[in-house]
Amino acid sequence: MSLSSLRCIRKYNNLVNVHISSAMVSKVLGPCKREVSTSSSQRANVATHNSKPDWNRAVSEAEKIVGYPTSFLSLRWVLSDEIANVALHLRKLVGSNHPLLKTAKNLIYNGKNNMQAWGLIVLLVSKAAGHSPEIPDMEQDKAAGVLHSQRALAEVTEMIRTSHLVHKGLVNMNVSQQFTRDPDDMVFGNKIALLGGDYLLANSCSELANLRNQELVELMSSAVRDLAEAEFLGERDDQNNPLPSRPLSEEQIDPAAEWDCIVEPLPMSGVMGNLPREWAARHVLAAGALLGKSCSAALKLAGHGPALQTQGYLFGCHLALAWQAFLDLESFTGPEPASFSLVGAPLAFTLEARPDLYCYIEAGRRSVHDVDYHALYEAVVSGDGIAKTVELQREQARRARAALGHFRCGDARSALANILSALHHALD
417 burial class (0-12, 13-18, 19+ CB within 10 angstroms)? Predict the structure, then answer.
């Protein structure tokens, strides 16, 4: 690699209440006694010496367990010539306020605000479940306790997630004047977002095919389908930002369908107009399905049966929803923000109780700048939207722990429990 490529990489780094069938979720198992080595106990037992587990510490300890850093993109893919060229062109967008710059920064930022720990979670689930004794020794990474194919799947998961985030950075040129006076910057940024996202998605498909497992390809392909479907759920403004549906009365809402499917499309009956359920559907499609199906696929590679694969799917879905509820709350835990998500859980619960507030959503169909965020913020903090979101987050975390209880005791299971605890205590 040339010296100029290495320099541009350095600059790039600097720039840049789900209603699943209750029959499928068993009660949380009681605490188990682990018989592991002293070093494993020290690595996994993060919460015992800290009453409030720290997120970064929980992730750092989990990385030691699987022997791999959180973001695979910072290794093999960021150091490729193609991504180096993207980073070189990305410098031209500095000062243009193109959304791709914010996406790149969030991907590099190592904190609880991003989801680049997905690959790590897939590996932790893989190690927590173990593998069938019929798996050949050549397929095993004995030092980390996972399979080589599971490592490849974790990389595929991160690449699919990242390609989706990069593609979402495309700007509608019809209203691009709100971003910059020079439309050429927006056109150029759109080209980089489109090609960069396509490159990562194409490589993920290639890596997935190399695993030579047709059922696995079908499962992960359905996750990509769900990501696309999430972009067409509900209404959108002129800049393609999602908007909540108009709240409906209980008599107007269709009967809710059970979400007990994995490969088949998510049933939409009883979703639109039921804002809390709409929030869950939106984020199951946009996040939970990919993480859940990746965990399920990892268990399939290890030779586990459908029952444990289902628990892996449920764990991933509930963890992603608990994570999203936590992120939605961040806008209401500090100073009043200039703007916040109009499809977040706190506002969804508030609109459900006060449908009259939807007039502020209607005002923003042409531009988000026309939304009276202050009025919506005051309505959220003065109502019970925040308290209901906190309860939602804790319920999703509880369900994730219920699914986690089906895995064997060990340091990987404890690390996953610590990640859930870190999100829980962050709300206190």
Answer: buried
- CB neighbours of residue 6 within 10 Å: 11
How far apart are alpha carbons 404 and 407 in whole angstroms? Answer: 6
Q: In Å, what is the CA distance from 385 to each residue of 11, 96, 97, 123, 250?
A: 41, 36, 32, 35, 19
How does pLDDT run across 411-428, given as a tens digit for each residue?
Answer: 999 999 999 998 876 666
Structure tokens at 44: 């996994």
Give the tens place of pLDDT for each residue, 139-198: 888 778 899 999 999 989 988 998 898 888 787 776 545 544 566 777 877 887 888 888
Question: How far lies 29's CA from each of 23, 299, 393, 398, 407, in Å?
Answer: 16, 20, 20, 11, 10
Q: How many CB atoms lie within 10 A of CB 382?
A: 10
CA gap 123, 196 in Å, rounded:
26
Parallel, antiparallel or unpaired: strands 140-141 and 235-236: unpaired
H or E, element range at 141: strand 140-141
User: Residue 158: left if φ>0, alpha if ψ -120 to 50, beta else—which one?
Assistant: alpha
Sequence-distant (6+) residues with CB within 8 A of 22 are: none
Supply the DSSP string of 336-352, one letter for each residue. Answer: PPS---TTSHHHHHHHH
The two structure tokens encoding residue 397: 């975390």
Residue count of the chain:
428
Q: Quick check: 321 and 280 in contact, CB under 8 A?
A: yes
3-state secondary structure of 242: strand
Collapsed DSSP state (helix, strand, coil) of residue 182: coil
CB 260 within 8 A of CB 24: yes
Q: Both tokens of residue 135? A: 């798996």
Go through 160-186 and write b for each residue having 16 or more CB atoms within 10 A of its CB, e for each that does not: bbbbbbbbbbbbeeeebeebbeeeebb
Q: Check the CA dihedral 413-61-327-150 and report its sign.
A: negative
- Model pTM score: 0.80
Contact 279, 242 (CB under 8 A): no
What six digits make up the tokens of 12? 């790039």
CATH topology assigned to domain 3-425: Farnesyl Diphosphate Synthase (1.10.600)
